[in-house]
Design a protein that fits this description.
The protein is of the alpha/beta class and 594 residues long. The chain is built from 19 helices and 25 strands. β24, α18 and β25 form a beta-alpha-beta unit. The chain is globular and about 80 Å long. Bound molecules: 6-O-phosphono-alpha-D-glucopyranose (G6P).
Length: 594
């Protein structure tokens, strides 16, 4: 979704802003723009990619500027709606991430006071409010303007003649990057990785005044001392490293990611954190909340937790949970969110806190909003994930769930020891799947011709079927549906034909026989079947059209090897269809609106 960047320093701002915007592209956007303080505020923006913006824009001479990638919410993608937005004088420019919920009323009021609007955006009220309140002190004018607005925002304000940037946040992420004789303001870390590894995470309600050599942060009308953190991600991690797409690179990083995330938490025999006080008191039940791919990880987490902890686990889509009328007090919940910024998940966390719930966040982003709302945070160590489609963060989330469940498990010591041994072998098992890429590529060529594909699974592999379908739909634009094997006879058999391939996840567990029955039912309706099965299952080859063979693992870990195969299948299918794999149309990496 929208990304913002600000630069103030001793270098020309324009090329730095454009480079930072390139690093924000992964968030998903439809238009972009920059403003640089030269003799006047120079703005160039359009409904184009950052590269095209850079080529087409005139050279601006100035060392202070702001930039924006826009993901349309209020008003279509267009030049007029792209940021930065200006006030009537053209002296005040603003970029904004978030939603101003009372903008209609503010716009009406400002219009009646003589302000002229040129876009359909909610954002445009902000420069006009600042103009209205400006009497020589920009900081005070921004504060007054923000008192009028409701909703969420991370903003950066640039004004002609002022060698400073003003920035503020409420419910949208915002960081300040600290460099030598220069500072950056951005919506997230990858934007500034090329320039600095020193960062300040702003809190809700903070207003920052950033000059070339100084950073001042005000909270509740008082100046606060700020602390710098070191960014642990490297520039290399956020680059393609010779791969055709970020997604392929990130799929291939998974053996390392598993090792990193496990290494973080299994160094000691004792768990590193005490999950919700569970070690002393135990808990009777658990809730998991998430959106998108993280929701599928949570669904797998239910099977893991219920098997190893022997407590009931409820999993909810965060955006639906937010409309439930009844939430039991003191619920223990795990919120899973790779970005730590998904608006629906954050809202659900807040609702839980209101009823004295205890929330553990699993996230990949240090300092993200989820970490501030949570009582405890467990980080996945996946490194920056640039492709919109989540792959390595999903597998890292599973690793944390395995670890948490095993740390508190009620299973006997022998089973646990066996699981731990398998867990340590997972990176090499995943590597075997990756080494089998050519076989999966062949299947993808075949799949790419179809417009409807179904995925089925049972037990712990039912959510893997959901994730396989999500991934294929997201990046190849093929309509795909994930189903519980047992459900197809209630509806989907009605639409199956030779035009609807079915991918069946066949695990060597207590679901095996029932899955075989499903596969036969599907074949009887003429639909092509591709089975994903572990090696050594020769019998299945007779029954189906083709088989993707995977290394043998304990059923509890089968989602990991299966999902890596389905990620590759989605990737190569999308590639075969010539899709924009890393940036699928209309989707965003970090969904900061409801
Ligand atoms: C977006 C991303 C998905 C992600 C979902 C939830 O739709 O494109 O990859 O699964 O948001 O994001 P979260 O950051 O909460 O895991």
């Amino acid at each position: 979704m929208c990304g913002i960047i600000g630069y103030i320093g001793d270098k020309q701002a324009q090329s730095i802003l454009l480079n930072c915007l390139r690093r924000l592209e992964y968030r998903g956007y439809d238009s972009c723009g920059i403003a640089v303080a030269a003799n006047a505020i120079e703005v160039y923006k359009d409904e184009v990619r950052v590269e095209a913006l850079g080529k087409a824009s005139p050279q601006f001479d100035g060392t202070v500027g702001i930039g924006h990638t826009r993901w349309a919410t209020h008003g279509e993608p267009s030049q007029a709606n792209a940021h930065p937005h200006l006030d009537c004088t053209g002296n005040i420019a603003v970029v904004h991430n978030g939603v101003i919920s009372n903008f209609q009323a503010l716009k009406q009021q400002l219009t009646s006071e003589g302000h002229n609007f040129v876009s359909e955006t909610d954002t445009e009220v902000i420069p006009h409010l600042i103009e209205k309140y400006y009497d020589g002190n920009l900081e005070k004018a921004v504060e007054a303007a923000l008192r009028d607005v409701e909703g969420s925002y991370a903003i950066i304000v640039l004004m002609k003649g002022e060698s400073k940037l003003i920035t503020a946040r409420k419910d949208s992420p915002l960081i300040i990057g600290v460099g030598d004789r220069e500072s950056f303001i951005a919506s997230d870390v990858p934007a500034i990785l090329d320039y600095t590894d020193r960062v300040i995470y702003l809190e809700d309600g903070d207003i920052g005044v950033v000059t070339q050599g100084n950073i001042k942060i005000r909270r509740d009308d008082k100046e606060v001392a700020w602390a710098e953190d070191k960014i642990l991600w490297s520039v290399e991690e956020a680059q393609k490293a010779g791969y055709e797409h970020f997604m392929l690179k990130e799929i291939h990083e998974q053996p390392k990611v598993i090792r990193n995330t496990l290494g973080e938490y299994t160094r000691d025999t004792e768990p590193v954190i005490d999950l919700a006080g569970m070690r002393d008191t135990g808990i009777a039940s658990m809730l998991m909340l998430a959106a998108g791919t993280s929701y599928n990880a949570a669904l797998i987490g239910k099977y893991i937790m219920e098997e190893l902890l022997r407590i009931p686990v409820r999993v909810e889509i965060a955006s639906e949970f937010n409309y439930y009328s009844y939430i039991p007090a003191r619920t223990v919940a795990i919120a899973i969110t790779q970005s730590g910024e998904t608006a629906d998940t954050l809202k659900a966390m807040k609702r839980l806190k209101e009823v004295r719930g205890r929330v553990i966040a699993i996230t990949n982003v240090v300092g993200s909003t989820a970490t501030r709302l949570a009582n405890q945070t467990v980080y996945t160590r996946a490194g920056p994930e640039i492709s919109v489609a989540a792959t390595k963060t999903f597998v890292a989330q599973l690793m944390v769930l395995y670890w948490l469940a095993m740390a508190y498990s009620k299973a006997d010591a022998r089973r646990l020891a066996a699981l731990l041994m398998e867990l340590r072998q997972l990176p090499s098992k995943v590597q075997q799947v990756l080494d089998n890429e050519a076989e999966i590529m062949e299947q993808a060529k075949y799949l790419a011709k179809y417009e409807n594909v179904f995925f089925i699974g049972r037990g712990i592999n039912y959510p893997v079927a959901l994730e396989g379908a999500l991934k294929l739909k997201e990046i190849s634009y093929i309509h795909a549906e994930g189903l519980a094997g047992g459900e197809i006879k209630h509806h989907t058999l009605a639409v199956l034909s030779h035009k609807t391939p079915v991918i069946a996840l066949l695990a060597r567990d207590n679901t095996y026989e029932a899955m075989l029955t499903n596969i036969k039912e599907i074949k009887a309706r003429g639909a092509p079947v591709i089975v994903v099965a572990e090696e050594g299952d020769g019998a299945i080859e007779e029954l189906v059209d083709s088989v993707i063979t995977l290394p043998r693992v304990d059923t509890l870990f089968s989602p990991v090897v299966n999902v890596v195969a389905l990620q590759l299948l989605a990737y190569y299918t999308a590639r075969e269809r010539g899709c924009s794999i890393d940036f699928p149309r209309n989707l965003a990496k970090s969904v900061t609106v409801e």
